[in-house]
Amino acid sequence: MPQQQANPVTNEQSSALVADIRRWGLELGFQQIGIADVDLAAYERRLDRWLDEGHHGEMGWMAAHGRKRSRPQLLHPGTRSVIAARMDYLPPDATPVESLLEQPERACISRYAVGRDYHKVMRSRLKKLAQRIEKALGPIGYRVFTDSAPVLEKPLAEKAGLGWIGKHTNLLNRRAGSWFFLGEIYTDLALPADEPVRDHCGSCRRCIDICPTQAIIAPYQLDARRCISYLTIELKGSIPVEFRAAMGNRIYGCDDCQMVCPWNRYAQFSGEDDFQPRQDLDAGDLVELFAWDEATFLARTEGTAIRRIGHERWLRNIAVALGNAPTSPAVLSALQARIDHASALVREHVAWALQQHPH
């Protein structure tokens, strides 16, 4: 959105405007709206330490863009406030994660990815919210984001009072758990910021203890290089052998730390049709998913977040899951069918998987 001259809004008007923005946000399907200022200095120092320790792995984009990630006014000049929003995504009809993990012949896909790509849904709603503000005020300078640019989403949401960053480094809300997406509107409006909420993790360490690969190396510290979400989505090459058995049947992301969090007893199911699970992705049979050629993969994952990993990594991930699955003629046959695959990456993981099934 082109930068406009900042709208002069009095304190009284801005408080009323924020109330309106919250109401409009709820009408558009968001569950909560908060306002943050743009001072992220403390988070910037934490980010620098995390990057210096190499915990971002191959996610070079986390270190790119200079200070734009931690200084909103550099990313979008003129930004004075950030409108932060959250939207529940847990689909009521999806197979529970706990159940999937007990069915090693089925694929466990992170619950956020079994429906339509959230980027499209969130960006569309955020743009509508910004346009609703413009309808009331006239043109403003703004830009909307949903995990789509160098933005410190969780810190901004924490500053906006939407929750606190838990020991697993996800945002937690006392009334909604963590099964929600985040999005932001950077704006030149000077809006009164909300107060952050207190950390309520206490002495609980369930997320730390459950992590299959021990990626949460200390409370509030994640080594992404060990995280199954990173290994199955962000990592482009070979999955380190030391983590393959621990991946189990998780072929895209991992929800274990959310699954065991006590605050998720208060999580609300999503009412969004777009987030409802697609039949092939909710609890798919590993052997059947492994048989998809590239055209089928592209067709079945069209409009989803899964498509971004591509067919090669899809096969890589499923090969690992098949290596962890119970030995059966169907599993062995599926792996044998890919043993001469054109991709060296796929061949390597298929060979490893077959080694897990003495025959």
UniProtKB/TrEMBL annotation:
**What's this chain's function?**
Catalyzes the conversion of epoxyqueuosine (oQ) to queuosine (Q), which is a hypermodified base found in the wobble positions of tRNA(Asp), tRNA(Asn), tRNA(His) and tRNA(Tyr).
The record's comment on protein family reads: Belongs to the QueG family.
Question: Where along this sequence does the record place binding of cob(II)alamin?
Answer: 69, 147, 171, 182, 229, 254-255
The cross-references to Pfam families, in alphabetical order and at most eight, read:
Fer4_16 (PF13484), QueG_DUF1730 (PF08331)
Which Gene Ontology terms of cellular component type are present?
cytoplasm
**The name this protein goes by in its record:** Epoxyqueuosine reductase
Q: Which GO terms describe its molecular function?
A: 4 iron, 4 sulfur cluster binding; cobalamin binding; epoxyqueuosine reductase activity; metal ion binding
The annotated subunit structure for this chain is: Monomer.
Q: Where is the 4Fe-4S ferredoxin-type domain?
A: 192-221
**NCBIfam families, sorted:** tRNA epoxyqueuosine(34) reductase QueG (TIGR00276)
Q: Which cofactor does it need?
A: [4Fe-4S] cluster; cob(II)alamin
Annotated [4Fe-4S] cluster 1 binding lies at: 201, 204, 207, 261
Query: Which keywords accompany this UniProt record?
Result: 4Fe-4S, Cobalamin, Cobalt, Cytoplasm, Iron, Iron-sulfur, Metal-binding, Oxidoreductase, Queuosine biosynthesis, tRNA processing
Q: Which Gene3D superfamilies match?
A: 3.30.70.20
Q: Where in the cell is it found?
A: Cytoplasm
Database matches in InterPro entries: 4Fe4S_Fe-S-bd (IPR017896), 4Fe4S_Fe_S_CS (IPR017900), QueG (IPR004453), QueG_DUF1730 (IPR013542)
* Pathway noted in the entry: tRNA modification; tRNA-queuosine biosynthesis
* A biological process from GO: tRNA queuosine(34) biosynthetic process
- EC numbers for this chain: 1.17.99.6
Per UniProt, tRNA binds at 236
- Do you know which HAMAP family this protein is assigned to? QueG
Task: Describe how the cofactor binds.
Answer: Binds 2 [4Fe-4S] clusters per monomer.
Q: Which residues form the active site?
A: 147
Which positions does UniProt annotate for [4Fe-4S] cluster 2 binding? 211, 227, 254, 257
